[in-house]
Amino acid sequence: MIEPGQIGRPVRTIALCKSDNYPRSVADRVGADPARAVLEVGGGQSSQHPVTASAQAIADGTSSVALVFGSEAIPTVRHLAAGEPRPDFTETRGGQLEDRGYGLSGMVGRYSAAHGLTDATTHYALFENARRARSGRTPEQYARSPPAALRSGRTADRFTIREMIRDLKSRCIMTCRAYRERRGGGGDTSASADHLGSG
Length: 199
Fold this sequence. Notes:
Elements: H1 22-29, E1 38-39, H2 48-60, H3 74-82, E2 98-99, H4 110-114, H5 120-135, H6 139-143, H7 161-182
Parallel strand pairs: 1-2
């Protein structure tokens, strides 16, 4: 089972409570009673790791079937928590559970946290900047490199997530239009990029 987003970090408050054995609570709702329930760590690898481990267990003959699922309801929880009455989703399920924890050991220390390095996005930015510096390129040169999604330089004071989403949405719309034109199609392609956010 993949760690659900709303209980994936120790710093996040659980607004509407939670199950004490989330994998088994979900299993109950689909009529399953697994011999082993696992609550996987959160992170970019959390989608693939349990799939690989389950496939290996089946190949080794230690398991005959596995169910891997994930969930995330953060926007729904925020919406419900803002209203009245607030629902209480506390559930005491009990039963066997292999809780693999938050998976943060050795990843974020006090020094990193003091400098704002507390999430994947800021780490990625730091790694990219280190990669750029190692290559001997200026930020402007690096921004114009072929793999760059946004090829104009940005400074910290003018770069925002909204700006990045808007630029990526525009790029997606242009790509969709070019693809449709090559295939001889037409029509409005803006809807195909709506999931990337609004400008």
